[in-house]
Amino acid sequence: MSPDAAPPLEVHDLTVAYHKRPVLYGIDMVAPAGALIGVVGPNGAGKSTLIKAIMGVVPISGGWVKLFGKPFRQAVNRVGYVPQRESVDWDFPVSVFDVVMMGRYGRLGLFKRPGKADRDIVRDCLDKVKMLPYAGRQISNLSGGQQQRVFLARALAQESDLYFMDEPFAGVDAATEAAIIELLTELKARGKTILVVHHDLPTAQKYFDRILMLNMRLVAYGPTEEVFNMENLQKAYGGRLNILTEVAEREKAVAE
Amino acid sequence: MMKEDAISKQAFSFAADLRRFTQIIFSRICVSSAFHLRLKKTIFILWLLFGTSLAHAAKIGDLRETDWLEQAARFWSLSDPAVVNALIGSVLMGVCCGLLGAFIVVRKLSLMGDTLSHAVMPGVALGFLWAASKNPLAIFIGATLAGLAGTWLVGAIKKTTPVKEDGALGMVLAGFYAVGICLFVMIQRSPTGNKSGIDKFLFGQAAALSTQDLWLMGIVTACALLAVALFYKELLTTSFDVGFARSSGMATGMLHSLLMSLLAFAVVISLQATGVVLVSAMLITPAATAYLLTDRMGVMLTLAALIGVGSAVLGAFLSFLGHSLPTGPFMVVGAGVAFTVAYFAGPRHGLITRWFRQASRRRRVRDENTLKALYHLAEQSNFAEESFNLGQLAAQRNESLPETEERAAALARAGFATVVQATENGLPGTHRNVQLTPSGWRRASEVVRNHRLWELYLTNAAQYAADHVHDDAERVEHILGEEIVRELEKRLNYPQLDPHGKPIPQTLQPAPAGDSAATGYRQPGS
Amino acid sequence: MNGFIPAFDFQTVFVEPWQWDPVGTAWIVGMGFLVSAACGLVGTFLVFRRMALVGDAISHSILPGIVIAFLISGSRGVLPMMAGAVAAGLVTVALIEAIHRGSRVKPDAALGIVFSTLFALGVILLALFADKVDLDPDCVLYGEIGLMPLMQEARIGSVSLGPWPVLQMGIVFLVLVALLFLFYKQLLVTSFDPALARSLGIRASVYHYGLMFCLSVTVVSSFEAVGVILVIAMLIFPAVTGTMLTDRLPLILGLTLPLGAMYSLLGFHLALWLDTSIAGAMVVVAGALFGVAWIFSPRKGLLALALARRRIQHEAATA
To answer: Between chains, do B244 and A93 touch, taking CB under 8 Å as contact?
Structure first.
């Protein structure tokens, strides 16, 4: 079996806990190549935690994750990441170009400096998100949408096969939103797999061909038209009470 | 044995060479001539700190008490080996602290530097105890271990208790320091061992650096330089975006430990020059100053190292001038002055600089509003008139006549208009007229054009009511760039009329000659 | 190393001081208690406002304040010292705010710059006017709580009220307790939810600067006893130790009193045993007590945490 026969992403029984509080329980999923998957769920459902746990950014307390049939460490160069925009300090003394260049660092490895080829790639990626004219700017002089484009360009510069994006549509202008959609479609057409954490339910149905509905545990996962129904939504959003009582019951059972 | 006696001995026995500072309790200040002399000397030193040259040195020639001029000459002639050591030490320390401090500041770990510098205290004491003398290597090892234990403990407290970062830092800082103080006092009292020099760790004495100390400083600085050069891209990425760094396979934990170890090394080698209490300032202040001066990490590293060296050398020099003055405080105040200058007068982010920039923007907006009013006046006359008297302009702008005169004068200064005496029936009249120059016309048409394009965009694209768009456009018209104007034109399909039905001047192409309502341009004086 | 740690003897360490000089010992321990309790009360609010290190900053930067006050007034009277300290404290807070508002320097770096520069300035002034200012750099760093019995006594007629610094600290403590009772509600609201406070018509900035005022006064009264750096410990440790044990603010505030008494008493005896600095030993005790709470706290301790983690894993495995 060639390595690429393995699915880009395979998650088995993933459990994550912060301090004493469990955040994700027993998540199981497989992402096929070329899928554009939206991760939806209410606030605090563990959407960001899921992708962070998959990439080893937060430690996992149970289960395992395989990327292209390998543990994360061995597949790291095939993974691209767009973190939440608020997660960084935009006053940091770097230019737009420097930030996008960070996308190349993972590939370069230790001790190697970026060369001309890397600089060309960075410029191409900036051009793709129409940010090339801003390459020399300090990052604090950008609008929210422009900041998001910079992060997208950085992910593109990673030249990966599997992308994780954490709320890329949050707080961006309509033009950037359209540009992101265009980019996602293009990536998908090239056979890349993309997981996007998304907050807005109405657009989720429109944008993604697969939906992963999450509320601390997996509510539903599959093609959008199958998953996106009232019953599942009720379970994920309206059914918060149910989940709480269920957990409480189980805790009682364990205590006895 | 009397207990009071034991206790007072305990409180008094430490740091014998600083003891002479202690006075009888409630002694009164005497305004003696000696006091005046001291005062003058301080003023002089403070004045030196604020960057004045030695040109005024003659003024304080009457300060013979400490022959500071002679001292200064001795310092810069470098004939004294202690001075050479102090200088080399200061340079090494400035480079090392500046480089690492830059990363500390951008990672928002400034106070970790402070905690670390206090946390090394018990290590210094234990190292001292272990080697039974002031052996730099033993102290280095002990202090580094204690510093790392402190940083580890901060992390552990943050992770496993509800205590927030500031509390954890404060606890470790004070707790470790207290252990250190207890050990120091015990060492002072212990019968064995050579205890000279340990008190230098409190406020620092650069002149007391030994060759052995310098070797250690050199090695540590070289390590820091090497680490920053080798791991620059990793340090940069983890500092900017830890999550991304980890997702692209960087060993963020290892890098953090590396940085903390280097930081501990830097603190330890700086102890003797600046003292425990003020090391953190040498980490934070030069780096923060550099942070105010540049937008690039590479430049910031270089600047931080340079500012660090500058303030360290200055501190070593000033403390040498007086009689057994501590080094550290002078270095720190030097760095503080550098920061103050950058804060107010930094080329990009300085407070005064920004204030000037804002003032000039306000001036531009005022000019543009006056230009626009003149354009409107011309438009009202169907572009038949070319010069307008100040009264008309004042009415249009809703301003008083003196105000308008000021505005017109400002336009004249900028070359946008000329102010001339009006003629009434061929004779010089009482009024004064203002007339736009070609560049004034161009600018006025541009402003009006921006305003009307934006109004149109708001009504068309954002579906504002036509009577609501004016104020909004008023704010935006001044900041629309060439690029956005082009984009607006394209989106609006090259419009001719604004939502109120007035023509939008087309002025971005070269101005045509003759008058034409369509171009809105009229050659003045034609 | 031989003889570095003296042999422990219960009689000499715990009994003899109280037999030989009960009054002097009581003044030392009492001063220790007053310092830890007063600092603990103010410090609790600092910790809850995530301003613990502002306490650190102010305790350092009052040094130039009191040196300048000394140089101007020429006396070590209570009022000039207090005025100098409060002025320096408020200037520190204002400067930190000005730096991080007026530039992109982050608050943590601003704090580090301000207090270290001011402290350095204070040390320089102290060194230059050494023969004029009756303040010893060592005392600034360690305090001289052991000297309390030797301080001038406050007297009304022939009745001794105890050493001046102890009396002063006692007054500060009582005033703090009174202020706490008067303004508890406002302090609570402004600490937890400044927005809500504003909507209730409470001026958050008034309480902010009021707290900074109290902090400066407390620190200046305490630092002669325990030194500038150990003052921070007294500000933070009671609050964080209390937080480990309970979630209720009144209880945490109440706990500062027994904790303060323990720091003072145990610290004094520890210092006697090891023949070392009393203030240092008090903080070591404070650290040790926090360590005990950290490990054994019934709900938030490390042991409780480990048990909970095991339960989750067990739960996940059985689910």
So the answer is: no
Please tell me the distance in Å from B158's CA to the nearest CA on chain C: 11
CATH for the stretch B364-526: 1.10.10.10
Chain B interface includes C274 (CB < 8 A):
yes
CATH of B71-349, one of 1.10.3470.10, 3.40.50.2020, 2.30.40.10, 1.10.8.60: 1.10.3470.10
Q: Say whether C108 and B111 touch across the interface (CB within 8 A).
A: yes
Q: pLDDT digits over C144-160, tens only?
A: 777 667 667 766 666 67
Rounded Cα gap, residues B289 and B285, in angstroms? 6
Matching residue, tokens 């087309």: B506
Contact residues, C window 202-231, toward B, CB-based 8 Å cutoff: 229-230
Other beta carbons less than 10 A from residue A109's beta carbon: 11
The answer to whether residue B28 neighbours chain C at the CB level (below 8 Å) is yes
Nearest CA among A99, A82, A81 for reference residue A90? A99
Q: Distance (Å) from the C-alpha of residue A248 to the closest C-alpha of chain B?
A: 24
- According to the model, what pLDDT value does residue C40 have? 92
Q: Do A25 and C313 touch (CB under 8 A)?
A: no
* CATH 1.10.3470.10 segments of chain B: 71-349
User: B144: Cβ–Cβ under 8 A, 6 or more apart, which residues?
Assistant: B120, B123, B261, B264, B265, B268
SS3 of chain A: the string is: CCHHHCCCEEEEEEEEEECCEEEEEEEEEEECCCCEEEEECCCCCCHHHHHHHHCCCCCCCEEEEEECCECHHHHHHHEEEECCHHHCCCCCCCEHHHHHHHHHHHHHCCCCCCCHHHHHHHHHHHHHCCCHHHCCCEHHHCCHHHHHHHHHHHHHHCCCCEEEEECCCCCCCHHHHHHHHHHHHHHHHCCCEEEEECCCHHHHHHHCCEEEEEECEEEEEEEHHHHCCHHHHHHHHHCHHHHHHHHHHHHHHHHC
Chain C residue nearest residue A23, CA to CA? C312
Per the prediction, chain B carries an average pLDDT of 75
ipTM score:
0.88
Question: How close is the nearest chain C Cα to the Cα of A249, in Å?
Answer: 12
In the DSSP assignment, the letter for residue B524 is T
Nearest CA in chain A to C307: A20
The structural domains of chain C, ordered by start, are 10-147+160-318 (1.10.3470.10)
Q: Look at residue B468 in the predicted model and tell me its pLDDT.
A: 66
Q: In DSSP terms, which residues pair with A79 in a beta bridge?
A: A162
Name, in order, each residue with C-beta under 8 angstroms of B19's C-beta and a sequence gap of 6 or more.
B12, C136
Interface size between A and B, measured as CB pairs under 8 A: 83
Chain C residues in contact with B30 (beta carbon < 8 A): 132
Interchain proximity B332–C235, CB inside 8 Å: no
CB contact under 8 A, C130 and B21: yes
CATH 1.10.10.10 maps onto chain B at 364-526
Specify whether the CB–CB gap between C186 and C207 falls below 8 A.
yes
Domain A3-255 adopts which CATH fold?
Rossmann fold (3.40.50)
pLDDT tens per residue across span A54-83? 888 888 888 888 888 888 888 888 888 999
